[in-house]
Amino acid sequence: MTERPRLRIATPDDADAVSRVLRASYGALMKPAYSDTVLDAVLPLITTANPALLAGGTYYVALLDGTIVGCGGWTFARPGAPDAPVDPKRGHIRHFATDPAWTRRGVARALMERCITDAEAAGATTLEAYATLVAEAFYRSAGFRTVAAIDVPIRPGVDLPSLHMIRSAVPDPAD
Fold first, then answer.
1. Which of 26, 30, 45, 130 stands the most exposed, by the fewest C-beta atoms within 10 Å?
2. At what angle do helices 15-29 and 36-46 cross, to 10 degrees?
3. 108-142 pLDDT, tens per residue?
4. pLDDT at 3
């Protein structure tokens, strides 16, 4: 039986390890869906740990054999819109990644279960995600449905083709 990852709330001290996981994960796992041109433009901008997430109390790291091998979290604040009004019923899945050497071992699943449980306990009835094109099956397996294909602005002139996905605490009868 595979060891279940141990989860804990991330702290600012985890920045280097989280950035390492983001670089390894996104650099390898996004290749099947994105051109080198897109990856060259976005990877330097999305593979650094977000200090606000690390300090927010709802971002987690997954450890196996004492090493951080995955990360992810949720917030009520919408990604890319820090000044937008917060909806206390709508949570947002944030900056998920698993080191490619540790995929298929329950790391991302454990992180997602923790996010769903904690977000719902905090009052969220809906969770949203801006998923990469390669992550759609994973999010679907966690109860999300695809709303639309979108381009997520990373910085002016650099967008990442993605999927807007939603999961409701009460399942949609159309699913």
1. 45
2. 170
3. 999 999 999 999 999 999 999 999 999 999 999 99
4. 82
Say whether domain 6-168 belongs to CATH 3.40.630.30.
yes
Place 1 in a pLDDT band, splitting at 50, 70 and 90: very low
Between CA 75 and CA 67 the distance in angstroms is 24
Residue 81: per-residue pLDDT: 82
Distances (CA, A) of 107 to 3, 37, 165: 10, 29, 20
Q: What is the pLDDT of residue 101?
A: 94
| CB neighbourhood size of 129 (10 A) | 29
Classify burial at 26, counting beta carbons within 10 Å of its beta carbon; exposed 0-12, middle 13-18, buried 19 or more. buried
Neighbours of 124 (CB within 10 A): 23
The one-character DSSP state at 30 is T
Which of these, 172, 59, 77, 164, lies nearest to 118 by C-alpha position?
Answer: 59
